[in-house]
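Researcher: Going back to the complex we discussed earlier. I've cleaned up the inputs and rechecked each line, so this should be the final set. Can you rerun the prediction on the complete assembly and write out the structure?
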Amino acid sequence: MVEAEVRHRNNVTVTGDPDGPVVVLAHGFGCDQNMWRLVVPRLAGRYKVVLFDYVGSGGSDLSAWAPERYASLEGYAQDVVDVLRALDLRRVTFVGHSVSAMAGVLAARTAPERIGSLVMVTPSPRYIDDDGYRGGFTAADIEELLASLDSNYLGWSSAMAPVIMGNPDRPELGQELTDSFCATDPAMARVFARTTFLSDNREDLDGVTVPTLVLECAEDAIAPRGVGSFVRSRVPGARLVTLDATGHCPQLSAPEATADAVLDFLDRVHGSRPDS
Amino acid sequence: MAPGRTPDPAPGDDPGGRVPPSGVPVPEDSAEELYDAAPCGFLSTAMDGTVTKVNATLLDWLGLERREVVGLMRFADLLTVGGKLYHETHFAPLLSLRGEIGGIALEMRTATGGRLPVLVSAAVKKDADGEPVLIRTTVFDASDRRAYEEELLRRRRAADEARELAEAARREAEAARREAEAARRGAEAARREAEAARSRSEADRARLTDALVVLQQALLPAELPTVPGLDVASYYYTASPDRLGGDFYDLFALGAGRWAFFLGDVSGKGPKAAAVTSLTRYTLRAAVFHDSDPVSALATLNAVLYDRYGLKADPRHCTAVVGVVEPDDDRGRTTVRLASGGHPPALVLRAGAPVDGPGRADYLTTPGGMLVGALPDAVFTPATAVLYPGDTLLLYTDGLTEARTDPERTTLYGDERLRDFAARQASTAPGDVIAAVAALLEKLGDGVDDDTALLALGAPSRPD
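Model: Rerun complete. Updated structure for the full complex:
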């Protein structure tokens, strides 16, 4: 795909040091690239930071969404590969939050020359408990989440659609846009939720060959402690850092600690001075 | 509505209305009591979600003791699993990014394992430096509203399903319509093709019929010549327009007041029979010119036909009467000499005999005459008739005598009935006789399954 098309489709934002090594920040289920707002300033000084929204989320082009493609994690991984190829980015550090960590694993397998290292922020390769594996949820729990989504999207209004889809002819919608981030079409959110919480990517972890950092929170209501250790044990050579943070989104609840851990990892990957 | 916002006064609100009427005691309310006993739940949490303060209303709803909650539980711990997931993926990130969030539907867990649908609004309180210090959360009991919303959702899903079903039905109907349309077009095309084929076949048939008519006419004289001292008439009855008949006749001048005539029937039907008819007709014409003896003419024809067809796998032959007529006005006698090769006998009608009486109509027998062209040395029988004024000689082919007269079509019309029919005719003039027999043929209709040629030669009546 042409760069301009992908930039539009995935609402790509590029910031930071244009000549620095590239860090790609990918949001998980529930919000969009705004999730990284508190972390980006800390990375931007030394790195070229690329953000994007998966199709169906945030400011992406909703007309590009297709239920077949985005009903599997490969569809989201393809979004990652499309962005990297369109911007011709190589050997990037891919930082994926939650389900995006797994999308990063799949993307690295598809385009190994594009992804040089991985940071997995509160990843979970499998949310549902399975014979001897503790993902933290039962299948019934996931159905309950889907019901929660439905009750909250009652307030979602089709009037927001042009805002979410981006409407250059109506700049007055700009303010509304900042107020409405994380707003998503309920049908697309449902598909994303199902894909996220019903996937099982444990086997894919064995195939990771790049330097990998796993970030977990001390208390995470979605990815229990054991999950981080599981991921570390399955990814060859992975490091696990447990942040003194609560919740599933350390980039919001503990942005400094999160940024520090990522920067420390970047130093290890690129050497202490990224220029050298 | 976002938390912390006060509604603007509605236009026209009378500010004076807020002042209580004098003399009525104003009930006091304390902020403390309002917090604890308000008709909604209040909750304050540290930034990590740990509950630091909660009001009695919420504890009552959840069936929890204050000591079980404060400092020990996080807000998310009070939620159902689905609520917790939604809190982590949506509620907390949005609150963190925006500093406030309103009207979120969640479900809380009660101490007895029940579920309490609630609507939650929350705001982050920041300190003087803008650092977030705590989260204030308001909880409304939404049981009734949730039931209503669930009903809405249920109906929306039902409507979606109905819409999908309707759409599917519409698509199916559309497909069926297209199929029917295609079938209709196919049928229409087939009909047009059949129609075209029918037209073509009708045109072919019409062309063929035209060609056959032309060909048949070529085998017969266009019209009989006018013969001084002789009345003549002829008729050709076509049994089947698309089958060339093998019947033929002719009348032509030999010179010196003599005229030759013949009438016959070639075996078979169709183009091959027509070819034989043509050969026969021109052979006889040439033969009679060469030798006016009718027997010689038949012998010549016999030789030609036998030579041409006699030894072939598909032999062709014919029956024929050939004759020469010599009108003699002065003496009132017209002599006819003829010879027959296997042909039905000619009929002589006498004007002088009483109608339907003896001698009115008699056959001029020519026994023993053989088929022409069947054997190399065929024998032909000569005969002579003298016609007096008003008398007529009628020649015919066996299409007439072999016509079937009964519905079962097993009985032939026959020689006898023909003779009786002729005898009953009031007029023996050739034109009248031919007209009567032609009418008879029309009457026999479908019973006549072979063409029939008629030729009548008559001595004109003398005016008395």
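Model: Worth noting: The CA atoms of residues 209 and 236 of chain A lie 7 Å apart.
Researcher: Good, that matches what I expected from the previous run.
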